[in-house]
Amino acid sequence: MKWVRASIVLGVAVISQQVDAKQDQIRLVTSPNNEYALEWTQPSGPLRVVSAGNGSAETQLDVSSFAQRFGEDHPGAVPLTFVSPDGTWLFVVAPPDSFANPPESFNQPALLFHRIQSKDGALLFQPAMPERLEKASWEFLDRELNLQRGDVPGDAQRVYSAEFIDWSPDSGRLLMKISSGLWSTSKQEWVQSVYHWYCYFNLRSGKFELTDRLRSVNTKPELNGVASDDPAMTTVVTAAEPIGGEGPQPTRKERFEQADKRLNDVYAKLLTKTEPAKREELREEQSAWLLSRDTEAQAAAVQAWSSGPESAARILENKTASTEARVVELEKRL
Amino acid sequence: MRIDFHGPAPRPGYPDAFRLGYVLLKRMTSPNNHYAVVFPSQLLEESPDFILNTKDSRVIGFVPTEEPYFQGKNHGSLSASWSPDSSAVLIENGGRWSPNDLLLLEFRNGQIFRQTDVLMPLQRLFAAARSKSEHRHVDETSAANISINELKWTTGKNPRIQIKCEGETNPKEFEESDSWNGELTAVWDVAQRKFVQHNFANVTFRRGRKEE
Lengths: 334, 212
Fold this sequence. Notes:
By secondary structure, chain A is an alpha+beta fold.
């Protein structure tokens, strides 16, 4: 059973200490190359870039445009920050306000920062655009998809939200899911349904863009978070395409079903080959493996900060990879 | 008491979701401190509730449910009733009118050895008792709204858990609707994976004024 334990080493280090109520500095994230980290002072900031080694403050990021999401009324709220693989970009998004009423509960503003070179090698970041990222992205989609949404009826206001999905491995693209809808203040209801779309921000050109993959899925925008007509999750995007490495949507459900069938076949063969006295042991081993596979897949989706259909798709992708590895392992034992 | 813990290693450049978005409370930890149940804060409110092996620093399972509990969830609760020897736990994922899930986990060698749904067998007991009345609009999969009042473990060769609960079919007390109420004391045998004793008390039935 050693392999089972090894396969789900998830590194939970329980410190078993009561949280010090006075401890108000929170390290949000560390850059992939361990050069710097972002720290937040609870409850209202500031958001600072610090040296990962000695924790000395380097610079402060201006997140005042969504400052109302933090403070004594929002205990525990922290900005979510994602650092690009090359460490030169920061995506900062306000936490969801699940206790607010719509449309505020829906709105999730985001900012993008870019590292600038300094002569003395200091860590300096500046906003990548003068406006908020989610608004700029929706304006791009309006134009790109010819949505003709310039006019809003009555007292309706357009509400935007941006969700981080992924950086491309070459740090060339930022994949986001953008959501927007029209909220009527007088009617206190959505007068235009909330739609969710995917788009890239090209970090080299500094412009929003769509690839064939995104165009193909954006023809069926997810409405109100429900994608009931897409059980195979063909319109869910979880990975950003690197520049020059664009490709079609993965057929993740088919791939999982193929892997699952192969696993059932090889497991049945192994069970037949196993002497009767040891079959129950093999059944228990397989049962433990299935639980560890599913647990690992869930935990990995959580660490990707996935929710909704992206979470379901990532869980399936993780299960597929584990199942394919298990097939190889069992085949060796035949 | 809230306990600090670190989860699985985060993705490079990503915030640590387990560090920022999960809560571990002392009351959710096993008596021997080897296992615990953690739930997400509002930052990750759609994410699952996980079971940890705190001794070996691993995530070993999750609560399979459509409606995981998160901190501050409206009409939600999460409780863990551990056997005194820490070999099993009954997790109640509470909902507005009735538990969403009642899950029994058994541990062996630092792993989850077996997980069993206890809610459906409990609903079946209520369904059988209620069927003796002339209740209309019967739903066998959700026979009654159940409130768990008390859980009591007995250990030894055959660990068992006694569940004291109440069931009702008309929690809003609509006069038009039939109303069935009953108190149930039932004993679940862990090894046999079934209720081995049950007794209803204070059962009442009231016919609604008219057919809905």
